[in-house]
Design goal:
Layout (H helix, E strand, L loop, with lengths): L1 E5 L3 E8 L2 E8 L5 H12 L7 E6 L1 H7 L6 E6 L5 H4 L24 E4 L2 E2 L5 E3 L3 H14 L3 E5 L7 H11 L4 E4 H4 L5 H28 L4 E5 L5 E3 L13 H16 L4 E7 L4 E7 L4 E2 L2 E3 L2 E3 L3 E2 L2 E3 L5 E5 L5 E7 L20
Parallel strand pairs: 1-4, 4-11, 5-6, 5-9, 9-10
Antiparallel strand pairs: 1-2, 2-3, 7-8, 11-12, 13-14, 14-19, 15-18, 16-17, 20-21
Helix pairs in contact: 1-7, 2-7
Length: about 350
């Protein structure tokens, strides 16, 4: 069995074989993370036949924190296209009279509406016609997004309406339906979860497809945000549940170390090259549905952990006002920070 943690800067391996364990660390390959995994397994001299891989990854996490997800179009009911931009009116700086401008998760021109309206009791008040859906498909073809997030009002009470949209769009885009991603009340949180799923889905799909192609004889499972695992083939269709994949594996490891040391109450601090995760443990993995990843609420079940876009490879710079800023952009593994001597010119934390 091999445990693999793919980060934005390094990819780590732990092999359990015959009661003994070995470990290895290689530089990640951001253009194709599966390449680093294949390289590490070769260094360890492990054959893929009969191999079981349990895989935690921060590929999705880092894509969100560094705003490097897929280009997403957001489709919703008429009159609600600005829900993601309005949010909950939270103030990032409570006592600041002038709040700093914050870019919405989806640009206004990519927020589209359809005249489908479902009431709070599940009654369909208005339904998009075939012409409406054809107009939507034509507009999406003009915008050329990589993925589409569909979040109709009260979609969880009548998922058939979102499915009609999916059927009209076909398989041209990576599609995320809110009625499948997070079938519950609160359209903002449901919308953000659906957008995150659509944004990260194509990234994880490409990555895991390449990984399975490189290791066709191995059994590959991926750690989910709640600390459970899922087969690599099914994982991209639940991409939002992989956003804390790597951190969840770290918590599970910390919990085991605490038990071996006779310690139940733990404060964990996991700093990688791109992000840093902190959590409190009290004898078990803490789960919640009110987590956050960067600026965004994460309402799917996940370990109770706080993640920020600051790690050892986070880029330091001075803004126009002379203030020192660090992250969330990271120098990554290639060419990496200036101190690597591989051609990188960015100054980073380490």
């Amino acid at each position: 069995m091999v445990g693999i943690d793919t980060g934005g800067t390094f990819t780590d391996f732990v092999v359990l074989q015959g009661g003994a364990h070995r470990h290895c660390k290689v530089l990640s390959t951001p253009d194709d993370p599966s390449r680093a995994i294949f390289e590490g397994l070769q260094r360890l001299g492990i054959a893929e036949s009969g191999l079981t891989i349990v895989h935690g990854s921060t590929v999705g996490t880092n894509a969100v924190l560094e705003n490097k997800g897929a280009r997403v179009a957001y489709v919703t009911s008429t009159g609600f296209s600005d829900v993601l931009a309005l949010g909950r009116q939270d103030r990032e700086q409570v006592y600041q009279l002038r709040q700093p401008p914050m870019a919405p998760p989806v640009a206004p021109e990519l927020c589209l509406e359809v005249p489908t309206r479902v009431a709070a009791d599940g009654t369909v008040l208005a339904r998009a016609t075939a012409d409406d859906l054809a107009t939507l498909a034509a507009r999406l073809a003009e915008l050329e997004p990589a993925a589409v997030a569909v979040n109709l009002l009260f979609s969880f009470l009548c998922p058939e309406e979102e499915q009609r949209i999916a059927n009209a769009l076909g398989d041209r885009y990576f599609l995320s339906l809110s009625s499948a991603v997070l079938p519950e009340v609160r359209e903002y949180e449901r919308g953000i979860a659906t957008w995150l799923d659509a944004s990260v889905g194509p990234v994880m799909e490409r990555y895991l497809r390449r990984l399975c192609r490189r290791l066709p004889k191995a059994r590959v499972s991926v750690m989910q945000s709640a600390g459970t695992t899922i087969a690599a083939e099914s994982a991209p269709r639940q991409a939002v549940r992989l956003l804390l994949s790597g951190p969840a594996g770290g918590l599970a490891g910390a919990l085991l170390c605490g038990r071996l040391c006779g310690q139940q109450k733990l404060l964990t601090f996991d700093m990688g090259g791109t992000s840093t995760d902190v959590s409190l443990l009290d004898g078990s993995l803490p789960l919640c549905t009110s987590n956050r990843i960067g600026r965004w609420p994460l309402a799917v079940p996940s370990v109770d952990i706080h993640t920020i876009g600051a790690g050892g490879g986070s880029i330091a710079r001075v803004d126009s006002g002379g203030m020192l800023l660090v992250g969330p952009e990271s120098a990554g593994a290639d060419p990496g920070p200036a101190c690597y001597g591989n051609g990188g010119a960015e100054v980073t934390v380490t």
